[in-house]
Protein 1
Amino acid sequence: MSKGVKAVMAGALALSLAACGTNNNSATGGNDNKGAANGSKATNQEKITITFQNIYPDPTDPKHGAVKKIVEQYEAEHSNIKIELDSLNTDQQKLKLKTQAASKEVPDITVVNPSAQMKPFVEAGLFAPLNDMVEQNGLKATFQEGILDWYSFDNNLYALPDGNNIGVVYYNKELFEQGGVKVPATFEEMIEVVKTLKSKGITPIAIGEKDTWTGSFLFMNVLLRTNGGPGFLQDVQDGKKTFEDQAFVDAVDSFQDLVQAGAFQEGATSFDYNAGENLFKTGKSAMYYMGSWATGGIETSSVNGKVGVFKFPTVKGKGNPNEFMLAPGSGFAISANSKHLQETKDFLNYFMLNFPKVMFEAKGAIGIAQKVEGDFKAQGYSEMAMEILDLFKEVQGGDLSFDNTMNPGTSQAHLTSIQDLFGQKRDSKEIGKDHQTAYTSNKE
């Protein structure tokens, strides 16, 4: 079992225990709200600004509220510290960080994805090791077992993750009833559901494909099925397979079948992640494929109480629905060149210690990377959230996203290629060949 699977399985255990949990509605890592900042080297006469880049611009996202709440708490307790928030959507943040990294002007705290996406920044010496920080106040123990491995290189930890999730299909029960359709057991049935919904004027699936990772995340779940299980990208890297193999070609064909059936809203590539998700959250689409982190935002939306979830189905008779797309979340990293390195570490330590408790209270704790104590049902989490908790218990493995596995050059070629499929149908073998060419030319 890979370390990623172990991390998700550990998360499932932590969440399932919590779901059955105690009547203590608090979160592991809860404290007296003093955090690590008591050890700060700053003095009251020294005014310090810490720039906190994040990917929570949507006010309906529980993480957005959690960030603001913890920042306000910290500033109230540390009058000399100002936390300046730079809230961007995911693709905007990635692009901005790339520009900042080129000039070695990384914000005090920024956001980075695990594994392959982190590696170039770490190799460039842009992030500060956090080993010493996580030992303060028991912070390391608040994380699910194995999850920090994805953010570590050469025995140094460089980022702290916000999530540990699985890919699921959310569906609007009312719109399914209006359309006269049922939850599909196979991908082929899913396409028929799409066609039926479309014929009745209901947008079948919402997506925010302006942020190119969203289409890739869905495509990779198709590939997980056509490959008959996880490991296709690893096999490519190990020289056992190529992108021209049948499993990849079949995945492209099936994905294009979904697009050609009219699965997505008109102009899907002009909708960013938040706009795409909002279509579902406002009842304007019947389905939404996303990581389980979307649960909290859906719970606070107008469709709360109307939503169920289902596992991504088999494709062409292949795959195991209990194998999921695994999504160790984006992580918070600290600039190695921060002018206030110790103060920034103190704040991030405080932030992460308080994050599980605040997220639990905001009904946003499904799929976070830290252990959560408390009775989810008693706290008022929805039936949908409890379904997600049950799905975590059934995880038998899976894959990471393309851009968390492959090098940046190959990943960019892939993301662009998948986005192009929303506008035009292409020969699947040619797409496989293009991927292989990109991989060969960018191979390290």
Protein 2
Amino acid sequence: MALGRQAKTLSKHQVDAIFLHVGSARNGTRNQLILLLSVRAGFRAKEIASLKWYMVLDANGEIGDHIHLTDNASKGKSGRVIPINTHLKSLLEKHFDQRTENPIFFSPDDYVIQTERSMRTSPQAIVNMFQKWYHELGFVGCSSHSGRRTFITNAARKISTVGGSLRDIQFLAGHSSLQTTQRYIEGDSEARNKVVNLI
């Protein structure tokens, strides 16, 4: 993907604005969950659409601390285990409680993201949702990949503070190549200015 054609990353202010915007509409909790799976877990549209409850539940049938994304729910062999962000976990628990109000109709094999007419959604429907939200908010150059790029960029900027490396970001992103991960990371001109003065 050429640099000029990459989806733009989102600022914290933009993420907060989208979260409030989609939360105020019909199916607000589900829509906020779609957003956080993108910006807090780095999920692709296909992965959001393919996520099932058993991938996020622990042995006690409660929301666990990791998402166990299988290869068939991802792209190629990019299944992985992703630690669940605190905000994302809270929203998963809320969505889970709503879904299991009538346990007779609940199965761990159910899809996490459903529509009012279907027990699942499609990757294209997820892409369309993001396009609609960004258009409504006037965010130019953003797409369903913006949240994923934002997640990877933010994680790359902070990984060294917890003793990690770009290899850990590669794993979280589900990339087979470190070069692919590096292409996702947006540079920071302010950081470049600061590091030059430290040399």
Protein 3
Amino acid sequence: MRVNYALLSFVIVLAVMVGIVGGGVMGGLAGYYAAQVSYSSASQLVASKTVNAPITVPAAVPATTSITLQENSAVITAVQKVKPAVVTVINQMQARRGYFGTVNPTASGSGVIIDAKGYIITNNHVVEGAQALQVIFSDGSKATATLVGGDAVADIAVLKVDGKVPAVAQLGDSKSLQPGQVAIAIGSPLGDFRGTVTVGVISAVNRTVEQMQGLIQTDAAINNGNSGGPLLNSMGEVVGINTLVVRSTNSGNVAEGLGFAIPSNQVREISALLISGVKVEHPYIGVNYQPVDPQIAAALNLDKTQGVVVASVVARSPAAKAGLQENDVITALEGKPIDEDRTLASILRDYKAGETVTLTVLRNGQETKIQVTLAARPTTR
């Protein structure tokens, strides 16, 4: 048999070419299929992570926080709460004979309603010499007021109005006050600007101004007519009753921002006595003093800041009769330590005029006991 080698060679070459082309096509199809399967798996994995796993922000990218500022601050809320309970007190004083005949002078101050029965707290000096009393509420309406009672020493008076009152303010705890916290005063400066709000801070506590002791000092503006109005904390609680301002000293030094208020705890105690008809008496030793602070302690070589140092002794007073001296440090009364928690004035309120008490006194570094028979405090401001 004769073999056609040319034809055979062509067939072999053709088969090889077909195999090469077919393999390439099949390989491409297989690769494409594998790529599709891989892509589908990866997509499912990403989708799964997107749904179930938290997205971690790279440390280099800072997180942002949106802050919305609200106009209604704590001060605004406190004022809105108490302002309807603040009143203007009008004192129609007793008639006086003047150069041009009889005159009927008037004085004004502020006050705050503390009870739904119509009891109002103000300063005693606001209502002194009153022939008739009237209050103006925050909405401008007026009512006749009667004087329940007054305490000239503490400068506290209680008035009462009949009928429904617009609001009642809550007395807070003045013992918890700290220098630096917000103080809000509301009143009627000059008698004309009803509902005036001023804001400052509690500058100090337990201050003494003349015969008044344990006062709150604040730089919230207090002007004539603010007397008797409330001093508030940021929660809208009455922590004091504004009573006086010191603007200058006897040597002519002028100061700003030296306002003083009667602590609410003292107001609560004395007003309760006045409402119940009990006469308020203030036991009296007869010393002017300052709380012992670090500077005083260093000057007197004291180991701790406790008690009060006697600045002066009033002539013919119980202290003078007992032999107390300037620079004596009174550390306790009847064994009760005098410190920031219990002032000398607050301890004295536990006793009555005529009682004899024992003072613990440091004199020239030596502790001694001195007995003092208490008297009633004079009422001259």
